[in-house]
Amino acid sequence: NGFNCTVFAYGQTGTGKTYTMEGGMRNKAGELPAEAGIIPRADRQIFDTLEGQNADYSMKVTFWELYNEEITDFLASEEPSKSSEERQKKLVSLMEDGKGCVVVRDLEEEAVYSKNDIYNLLERGATRRRTTDTLLNKRNSRSHSVFSITIHVKEMTVGDEELIKCGKLNLVDLARSENISRSGAREARAREAGEINKSLLTLGRVITALVEHFIHIA
Question: Could you tell me which residues are beta bridge partners of residue 56?
């Protein structure tokens, strides 16, 4: 219908945010398992709805993370000439689009034509995400990840004029808030945890400012 929407998974470490968003991947038959998460379920529902309406549409996906104030693109193509560490992630940056909006520049957008395309991209990106072991969680996400789906739907109006509706769904798996003393983080990991907690606090202030229609973010 041409709306934009964002869904956040937020909570302390070990509470199941990534599992809630991604869940179990496909089984061998390519079908969704019972433990599938929000991202694959949302994708399936979108495809089923559009195909059920015989809509004329296009769909593109981006998948990236924010780690220590740096943005990296999970879907960027890897260059064989680079080392494995350099190939793992492609840094991108923020910029204003001239209309007062902030956008992520040079993200790879992948066109998708089926549910399987979505699952392949999700699985590919998930393997690149930064994680580590802590006392509270064996596979602890150290970054915020954003899986975005952009859809354009073409409709015919009176007089055979074309109406294009554009909507975006952002599915965000936030890094965990963490009690540093309980997680056992030390030195660099402790500083990293402090940055994550600060970013989550900032996000809360942004959401409050939007809801209350403040001009500035305190």
Answer: 154
Mean pLDDT within 32-39: 86
Pairing of strands 4-9, 162-173: parallel
H/E stretch holding 21 reads helix 17-21
Could you tell me which residues are beta bridge partners of residue 177?
12
Distance in angstroms between the alpha carbons of the first and the last residue of the chain? 33
> Higher-confidence residue: 190 or 150?
150
pTM score, whole prediction: 0.79
pLDDT band at 38 (very low <50, low <70, confident <90, very high): very high
Other beta carbons less than 10 A from residue 14's beta carbon: 16
Structure tokens at 65: 């993370």
Residue type at position 183? S
